[in-house]
UniProtKB/TrEMBL annotation:
Gene3D superfamilies reported in the protein's UniProt record: Carboxypeptidase-like, regulatory domain (2.60.40.1120), TonB-dependent receptor, beta-barrel domain (2.40.170.20), TonB-dependent receptor, plug domain (2.170.130.10)
Family per record: Belongs to the TonB-dependent receptor family.
Source organism: Leeuwenhoekiella aestuarii
Signal peptide span: 1-28
Transport recorded as keyword: yes
Family matches, as InterPro entries: Beta-barrel_TonB (IPR000531), Beta-barrel_TonB_sf (IPR036942), CarboxyPept-like_regulatory (IPR008969), Plug_dom (IPR012910), Plug_dom_sf (IPR037066), TonB-dep_OMP_SusC/RagA (IPR023996), TonB-dep_OMP_SusC/RagA_CS (IPR023997), TonB-dep_rcpt-like (IPR039426)
Protein name in UniProt: TonB-linked SusC/RagA family outer membrane protein
Ranges where the TonB-dependent receptor-like beta-barrel domain occurs: 481-855
Pfam families, A to Z: CarbopepD_reg_2, Plug, TonB_dep_Rec_b-barrel
Membrane topology of this protein: Multi-pass membrane protein
Main location: membrane
Subcellular location: Cell outer membrane
Amino acid sequence: MRTFLQLRMLKKITLVTLALLSTTTIMAAPLFAEISFSYEQKTISGVVYDTQSGETLPGVSVSIKGANTGTITDLDGSFQLQVEPGAVLVFSYVGYLTQEVPVQNQTSLTVNLETDIQSLEEVAIIGYGKVKRSNLTGSVSTVSAETLEQTNKVDAVSSIQGQVAGVTVQRTDNKPGGGGFNIRVRGANTINTGSGNGGYSPGQNPLFVVDGIFVDDISFLNPADIERMDVLKDAASAAIYGSRGTNGVVIIQTKKGKEGKMTVRYNNYVGFKEIYNLPPVFNGKSYIPFLRDVVVGNQFASNKDGNYGQYSAAAVNINDYLSDEELQNIANGVSTDWVDLITRNGFQQNHTLDISGGNENTVYAAGLGYTQDQGTVYGEDFNRYTLKGNIQSDLTDWLTFGYDNYITLAKTNEGSLEAFRSAYRLKPIGRAYDDNGDLLFLPTQKETQLSNPIFDTQNWKLENKYINFIGNISLSVKPLEGLSITTKFAPNIKYTRVGEYRGLYTKSAIGNQSNTRAEVNNFLDYSYTWDNIVDYSLDINNDNSLAATLVYSRFLQDNESYGIQVRNFTSDNFLFYNLGAGSNVNSYGSGFKRQTLESYTARINYNLMDRYILTLTGRYDGASVLSDDNKWAFFPSASFAYRVIREDFMRNQKVFSDLKLRLSYGQTGNNGIGGGLNPLGTLSLLESSYTNIGDASVSTLFVNGLANQDLTWERTSEVNVGFDFGFLNNRLTGSVDVYNRNIKDIIFFRPLPTATGFGGTFDNIGESRNRGIEVGLNAKIIDNEDFTWSTNLNFASNRNEIVNLYGNSDEIIFGAQGGTFIHRVGEPTGSLYGFKYDGIWQLDQAAEAESFGQKPGQVRVVDVNGDGQITEQGDRVVLGNPLPKWTGGFTSTMNYKNFDFSFFVYTSQGVTISSNFHNARAFSYDGEPARLWNGYDTNYWTPENPTNNWFQPGNGGPYQGAIKNMDVSFVKVGFMTLGYALPQETIQKLGIQKLRLYTTVQNPFTFSDYDGWDPENAGRNTYGASFMARTYMAGINFTF
């Protein structure tokens, strides 16, 4: 062990000695040319740090201004130099701003170098390579590690929410672990919008590439491990990924090792989250007048003679509608807050420990991470463990080896799917506990449909557990100057086990043993990507340079699944771990899918005078999911950039510090069939199923679908025009992009007549178009020694429409979760379709209401064609679209000495949905008053309160669903963070490089006219939903 340590020390000494010798050699020649003597020299020493990370910086050049003397910092960032009085030291390092420090009377210095933001931002990550941002010809946006650290999100997806112009992130639920998201880059890029389309949901999320590995989602990543995220938005940039790039590409790089001494970083935050923005329901006191109003509403609904004045809430005898038990509870003052009983303040914590370092030949990094996110509903929680490691080593001057891996073990307890909904539906006059303090399964003997939701949180288990491994092993050879040949093999393996148990005392079983149920589903997903890359760069002369990339890539993905469901358990003790304890095997099955993709890619970049840059790209893809005749397709792109700022006529102007024009055209494709995983969508196959007949399980065979051998690629073509600019020496920078994107041969599950025996078939059915504008601005408002203030702003607007539907129809109407939707020529994809809300029928409109078969107090809709009747054929209209008309984000960061403060605001405007919160049975007030559940405490219509806000309870009418079609635009404050970094003079005595303390509030404010739970996932129904939460946390960034 001692010998090993001695060798390591010897190696360090050797490296530093060589660096010093090289510097001394350079400096020595001029010193001998002119020899002078000084007898007042003194020794100055010090340490150089990175201001932001607090880490020491090895290899920093330290020179005396105006002299030819200097040195470099060692592996610990330390230096020592002989200087004369009045000397000024100049510190310079690649990627950092040069700093001059007067020595004065000091003998020791602590120097903090600022990152050269402009230098760092020069590099943009593109497919299979990187390029200087100044030479970028496409539309690529970058989210830095600093931005990700500011957000402090549990999941990586929500970290980019509102940060990139043209990227829309829509939350689908608020479950712990981040919940689900829909991500759209430049709007809807295919006609397929999700479930409800014959079961077809290929997804519109972008392609994720993590360290060169294709992944379906990035929930397995700890955001603290991400170095940067680059979003390829235009088709010319994404064309390098061919058929996988039609929805945009998000390239993610995890943190790597850096040359220098070993650095240890520990980042941590802990906090809690609380529910907010809860819609009100009635309590024990307010429920009684509500019940009376419901009774009157039922009387209005059944009225035959038009005399509505005969009904009065005061005349209603509640004894006719409540049981003796309920009346006794009222007399005893029972008022149960069911939501409060199943909710809590959820605990949240994250710990990340990293080590990194290296020398001029080898760099390495390794890290551990743990995340806990406790849900605000009992029984819900998320735990994630991560382990990462990477190394890159120059084995020789022509051979480089690299290895990366990232392992994740995660478990999500999703709890009961019914507890949330039951809590909102149960009457407040029922009891959760008996007189002895024991839980009551049924709140009242009269209530037989809803059980105490506390039992659900204890006896309904839904557990999702997975282990995920991604790796990347590479070997790169540089046989000639400017030429490199690299081969990379990247496997991705994920095993998932979903177990669910619904015990005897749950709303699902409602105390009936035969309804108890356990289910286990297992999924094994394996894929690999094998890339072979040839890069060649050539500087022809001072004005001409050429770079070329050739890629051969092969991708394979296997998906296995098997599961079983068993019912009728005599005990709840085994959950889903002992399926043999159940007596009735209800269903079981297994499946296997394989798809492959083979690709040939070429890219050429030509740079003339660092002023005119041309990039040409072509990719030839062959996909197994299509028939032999349509398997292969070619996707070309061309992009051009003109750096106007480099022109001679721009040299003496004082307005622009940067100006570049960009123009691009590109094609991408989509081969998504059946969720993008079904390799047999162009074939008809036999499937088997089992049907229980008596005590026997009988096997049956059936054809699973109608084949379409002519199915071909979706093809996207896009023109993008943009310009980048800078003012005031780049104190103000920004970009503007305008694009027109056309999608042809859209794949859709076309419904077929019932007589065919099939629900439908996959087909290329039409064309759509996206047009939009994106703006990004960055400003350094104040930039001085003690105080800095920077902001960034982004804005994006997108307009989508269907241009053509093949065949004889110009519209396709379909149902999905959240209402009825339509694909219609001239309208946006997946538009909400239905009757238009026109207020509430008033008492003085009773005669007119009667002509439409309605009553006062009911929902009124527009008679679009004016024929005096409401019909689906004549009066349904396009009501809006679930995708926003425009989005924006604003971040502000201020630093005063060692304090920092930042906040982030984002908005989504022009979003129309069918609110499933308002569609829930409880909030629609339907049903008999005697069986009435709790209700939505809002400003509803009564004869004494003739509002148009909400219909009369118990009297919504035939079109009451129209009231739930609403705008859910919002403005949210995403986070507010206050931090303090301890001074270097204090912590360096303890051997610490950086110590920062901070506190953050996430989701502190939401501004919206929507009065449901959360405007971001308003289309989600109450089944299995969760609440919006505000999170308070404190954390530490520690480096030594």
